[in-house]
Amino acid sequence: MNEKFVIAIDGPAASGKSTTAKQLAIKLKYIYIDTGAMYRASGLCTLLQNISLDDKIALKEMLDKISIRIEYAEEGNRIYLNTEDVSERIREADITKLSSQIAVIEIVRNKMVELQRKMGEDGGVIMDGRDIGTVVFPNADFKFFMIADVRTRALRRWNEAKDNGEVIPLEDIKEELIWRDKNDTTREISPLKQADDAIPIDTSKMTIEEQVEMIYSIIKRGLNA
Questions:
Q1: All structural domains of the chain
Q2: Entry pTM
């Protein structure tokens, strides 16, 4: 597939969008842009520089200088914050919660959207997030909105944590997901919602392979329509 499309995949946390987007990018030979990692990196930056989220002046100064780079690697993209590889650090629990808090701040979202659009301006990219099809790339060539019931999503996160040697009660993960869903869907700035022209995909009973194949087949059908 030589066409250089912009593909937007949105959905709530643990709906499968990131893993599917990564594998689909490999299949299409596209660049995968993890927008969630960008918010995580900006959140980490506030911690490293001891900046309060309420201090808009300091936040703006930080954002004016921030550098976030996503570098492709076969084992998974590496995320660089101001030249430092923070790929593992931004996945830790404190940054996970902070990323949802910082994502509602207008100047942060404006900066991240600016960076995301620049990364995708030449096409041939897959982006996943919560507002890609509605805000970042409203004219994306293909838009998908992935959903799954909260228990399924909690089990996915629980298994991920177990694989990483972490012991987190399933109920705690479920409660955090419910909190994140409410926070993401009710925020004033770029709330999580399905774009009118996005294709919904319920991944509750689907494997990652099935998700990838379904989206890939939809894209192929769209090309031949």
A1: 6-220 (3.40.50.300)
A2: 0.85
